[in-house]
């Protein structure tokens, strides 16, 4: 939908505070009232945007995981896509904005979509895989919010969190292969 793509563009360009019904309406040539009727409120728009972001991002990550499993891709591809989703694509800023504004239920679509991705990839029955998914997601979110300043303060390269996440994913894959071979 054009409104969600416009909201996503505003999110990336100017941050979550710029994603208003009025701004989105202006981007797509609609009226504020038209979007208010469709989404119900600014909170409804944010929730729809969170769902849209989660679905498009998880579809990309799903493809990277499948490519990695088939030997075409690498674990680093999965890490980079996850970190980029929270940083460059604005999911981290949107999530923190929604939490700070008391709109916690707007995170439900993100959590549900990640859950569905893990189930779809047949990794839900494994505590280790769910734990790895949790850690990777939280690392990406934390990196999006304060990774640059923290890495600098600790005198580490800017890629330190991604590098650690990649190592964790490689170790998780190796552990899963050992378990499957037993």
TrEMBL record:
<feature type="DNA-binding region" description="H-T-H motif">
    <location>
        <begin position="20"/>
        <end position="39"/>
    </location>
</feature>
<dbReference type="GO" id="GO:0003677">
    <property type="term" value="F:DNA binding"/>
</dbReference>
<dbReference type="InterPro" id="IPR001647">
    <property type="entry name" value="HTH_TetR"/>
</dbReference>
<keyword id="KW-0238">DNA-binding</keyword>
<dbReference type="Pfam" id="PF00440">
    <property type="entry name" value="TetR_N"/>
</dbReference>
<protein>
    <submittedName>
        <fullName>TetR family transcriptional regulator</fullName>
    </submittedName>
</protein>
<feature type="domain" description="HTH tetR-type">
    <location>
        <begin position="1"/>
        <end position="57"/>
    </location>
</feature>
<dbReference type="InterPro" id="IPR009057">
    <property type="entry name" value="Homeodomain-like_sf"/>
</dbReference>
């Amino acid at each position: 939908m054009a409104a969600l793509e416009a909201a996503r563009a505003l999110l990336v360009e100017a941050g979550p505070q710029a994603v208003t019904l009025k701004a989105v309406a202006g981007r797509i040539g609609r009226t504020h009232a038209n979007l208010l009727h469709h989404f119900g409120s600014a909170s409804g728009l944010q929730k729809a945007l969170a769902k849209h972001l989660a679905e498009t991002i998880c579809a990309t990550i799903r493809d990277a995981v499948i490519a990695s499993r088939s030997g075409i891709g690498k674990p680093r591809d999965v890490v980079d896509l996850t970190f980029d989703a929270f940083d460059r694509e604005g999911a981290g800023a949107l999530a923190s904005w929604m939490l700070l504004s008391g709109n916690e239920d707007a995170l439900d679509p993100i959590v549900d979509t990640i859950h569905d991705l893990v189930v779809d990839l047949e990794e839900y029955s494994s505590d280790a895989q769910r734990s790895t998914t949790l850690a990777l997601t939280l690392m990406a979110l934390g990196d999006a919010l304060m990774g640059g300043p923290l890495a600098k303060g600790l005198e580490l390269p800017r890629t330190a969190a991604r590098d650690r996440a990649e190592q964790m994913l490689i170790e998780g894959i190796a552990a899963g292969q050992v378990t499957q071979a037993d």
